[in-house]
Amino acid sequence: MNPLAFLQSRRLLPLAVLFAAGCLIAAAEGQTGGDKKNGADKTPVVAGEAGLPPSVVKSLNWRGVGPANMAGRITAISVYEADPTVYWVATASGGLLKTVNNGITFEHQFDHEATVSIGDVCVAPSNKDIVWVGTGENNPRNSVSYGDGVYKSTDGGKSWKNMGLTKTFQIGRIAIHPKNPDIVYVGALGRLYGPHPERGLFKTTDGGKTWENVLYLNDRTGVRYSHAPHRARHAPRLDVGTQARRLRFLPRARHCRGLRRLRPHREMG
Questions:
Q1: Longest Cα pair distance anywhere in the chain, in angstroms?
Q2: Which H or E element spans position 47?
Q3: Contact 173, 223 (CB under 8 A)
Q4: Are 193 and 161 in contact (CB under 8 A)?
C-alpha cells in the first residue's frame, strides 16, 4: 500500500504532517543556534517561513480531542397531539428546541433564561401556545446541572416567565390538565444529594400564580413522574423515588377526587 494512502486510511496524515513540521522547525532552530555559537550573525528563522506550505496548512481541519463534553442528553420531548409536526425537545444542559415541521428544522428557545438545564417540557393539550418548562436535569448522575424552578410561555416559546418553585433544583415531570391549562402538576426531585424540603408533587389551579404541595412524604423523597388524568375525576398516576427505593402510587378507588386518597401500590426496587 502507498504510505500516503495508508496514513489517510488511518486518519494519521495530519499527525504525520505536524510531526514533519516540528522536525523542520527544530532543525532550523538548531542550525540558528549553531551559527550563533560560531559568531555568525544571521537572521533568526521564523517558524512560519520554515514550516509547511500554505496549501498544506489549508488542508488541515481542527478536531476536538477533549475534555469530554457533559452535554448530549435529551431529557424530554413534548408533542402537540393535535398537530404532531409541532414538538419541543428538552436537553440536560443545552436548552430547548422547537420544530413546527416534524423535525426538518429546529429553532432554539430558552437561550436567555437563568439556566439552560431542563428536566421536562410540556405543551398544553388544549393550547399549543401554552408551554411549561421545568428546569434542572432530572437524571441523578455524577455531573448534573440544577435549575431555578418552572417557566411558562403563552406564545409558543417565544418568551418565558418564571412561575416559582425556584428552590426545587431538579424538576422530574410536568403534567397539564387535558382541558384546563391552568391546572398543572409539577413533580419535584429537589436537591439530588442530601435532605431537602422542596420535594414532592406541586399543583396549581390558577396557571402558576399559587402552588400547593399536595404530596410530600419527607425531605428525602422526590417525585420524578406524574401522569395527568385523562378525565377530570381521575387522580394522576405517580412514580415517587426516594434515596433508598421507588414507590408507585395509584388511586385507592377508580374515581378519586384528590391526592389525599393515594396509597403505595407496590415497591419497585
A1: 100
A2: helix 47-50
A3: yes
A4: no
List the end-to-end C-alpha distance of the chain, in Å, as a whole number: 57
pTM for this model (two decimals): 0.65
Q: Residue 31: which H helix or E strand, with range?
A: helix 13-37
CA 222 centroid distance within chain: 19
- Cα gap 26→20, rounded to integer Å: 10
Contact call for residues 131 and 140 (beta carbons, < 8 A): no
C-alpha cell belonging to residue 257: 377526587
Instruction: Locate 159 and state its grid cell.
Output: 418568551
Cis peptide before 125 (omega within 30 of 0): no
Give which of 52, 43, 63 is closest to 21, Cα–Cα.
Answer: 52
Question: Which residues have a Cβ under 8 Å from the Cβ of 147 and sit 6 or more positions away?
Answer: 115, 117, 118, 119, 134, 135, 136, 137, 168, 169, 170, 171
- Tens digit of pLDDT for each residue in 40-74? 444 444 445 567 788 888 888 887 665 555 556 88
- Summarised one tens digit per residue, pLDDT across range 144-193 is 889 999 999 999 999 999 999 999 999 999 999 999 999 999 999 888 88
Instruction: Give CA angle at 2 (9, 11), nearest 5°.
Output: 20
Locate 259 and state its grid cell: 391526592
- Taking a C-beta distance cutoff of 8 angstroms, is the pair 208, 177 a contact? no
Instruction: Tell me the C-alpha to C-alpha distance, in Å, between residue 78 and each of 59, 161, 230.
Output: 43, 19, 17
